[in-house]
Amino acid sequence: MTPGRPVPPPLALQIPLAEDAGTASPLEGRLAAARGAVSSTGGLVPLTVARRAPKADDVEIAIEFCGLCHSDVHATRGEWGTQNYPLVPGHEIVGRVSRVGSDVDDFAPGDLVGVGCIVDSCRECESCREGLEQYCERGMTGTYGAKDARNGDSITQGGYASSVVVDRRYVLRVPENLDPAAVAPLLCAGITTFSPLSHFGVEEGDVVGVVGLGGLGHMAVKLAKAMGAEVRVFTTSESKVSAALELGADAVILSRDEDAMAAANRSIDLIIDTVAAPHDLNPFFRTLHRDGALFQLGLPSDAMPPVNPGALIRRRIAYAGSLIGGIAETQEMLDFCAEHGVVSDVEIVGADQLNDAYDRMVAGDVKYRFVLDTTTLQAPAERADA
Ligand SMILES: [Zn+2]
Ligand SMILES: [Zn+2]
Fold it and tell me: Are 46 and 55 a contacting pair, CB within 8 Å?
């Protein structure tokens, strides 16, 4: 534990369920060992989460690994507005099915499965009906920190935990030929970059630019290469050149070098911009061909420099955003990764290293994703009554 952080409570605080969550199930609910935040400043501490009794459509998963996403840091530290504490983060979950509800016939105990950023949505709006649950017009239910309308308005608690219960509609099948720890980040960082590449229709011979080489950027490089594209990485730091080339990038452009940027004029079809800090996009637009597009995936908390409409108009360039991916598309991404042997580069950490890992993520000191080994969470002392 980092010096200066408050000592965690001696007895794990239990996060209860809403009273009417998981009712009408013949199965009992269980407790999960977890790590989460009890305030915006206290770091992550041991917690116990009451998981609901699996209902007819529910899948209970014994979690093996959970990726650490930058969103987890922002959420637990209260940097994205008011949070419901205690809060267990984690939306890059991989584990094995332990129990299923009576109506579940597509998953069985022992199956290797994943859960990403979405655990429910309205299932009725146009976006949900098209399999684009991330754009649910009534708001998707996030894997942590969200009000779970179908389960008594309990607040969802994420994957830094020994188990989770999720409706089968939001559970992904993880191919057995991939390393499960290295698969975990595919469920957020992977799908977030796969979706715009796929939506743009990237294919053999296209040139894809990737801005930023963190958790998202390194997945964008790997996925675009696997789709047959030529990949050019934009970075501000000379120190990342060799890392980008090792990941498979065909070229690296130092974005602060005006001559290098001018030389890249009209050379790229699609730019995936993963940088979450405010930055000027206009120099990047000039590297795009006519009918090119720039997808911005990072959400800066401060205003960005204005976009010059002329840069877009003169080449019919599209400036777009994109949010994770739907459930069907996430499955498609996992199957694509299995076929092409694509996984994330990960550093596995134990529960006691989470706070240091957060500090290192903020400092950009990780290649490229931390993954929590959930066997290092302490086991809950007791089981909840159903
Ligand atoms: Zn994420
Ligand atoms: Zn919907």
Answer: no
pLDDT band at 81 (very low <50, low <70, confident <90, very high): confident
Q: Which residues pair with 39 in a beta bridge?
A: none
14 or 232: whose pLDDT is higher?
Answer: 232
How far does residue 132's CA lie from ligand 2's centre (Å)? Answer: 8
pLDDT tens-digit readout, 343-352 = 999 999 999 9
Q: Ligand 2 centroid vs 156 CA: distance in angstroms?
A: 18
The 3-state DSSP class for residue 351 equals: helix
Burial 260-276 (b: 16+ CB within 10 A, else e): ebeebeebbbbbbbbbb
Closest CA to 284 of 271, 269, 275, 296: 271
Instruction: Classify domain 191-321 by CATH number.
Output: 3.40.50.720
Distance 69 CA to ligand 1 centre (A): 5
- What is the CA(55)–ligand 1 centre distance, in A? 27
Q: How far, in Å, is the centroid of ligand 1 from the Cα of 259?
A: 35
* 385 CA to centre of ligand 1 in angstroms: 32
Report how far residue 242's alpha carbon sits from residue 224's, in angstroms, rounded to the nearest whole number.
18
Domain segments of the chain: what residues?
A: 13-188+343-376, 191-321
Q: Count of residues for the chain?
A: 386
Q: How far is the CA of 158 from the centre of ligand 2 (A)?
A: 21
Class of domain 13-188+343-376: alpha beta
For residue range 125-167, what is the model confidence (pLDDT) as tens digits?
Answer: 999 999 999 999 999 999 999 999 999 999 999 999 999 999 9
DSSP 16-53: PPPTTTT-S-SSPPEEEEEEEESSSSS-EEEEEEEEPP
At residue 384, does pLDDT exceed 50?
A: no
Angle at 188 between CA 227 and CA 283, to 5 degrees: 65
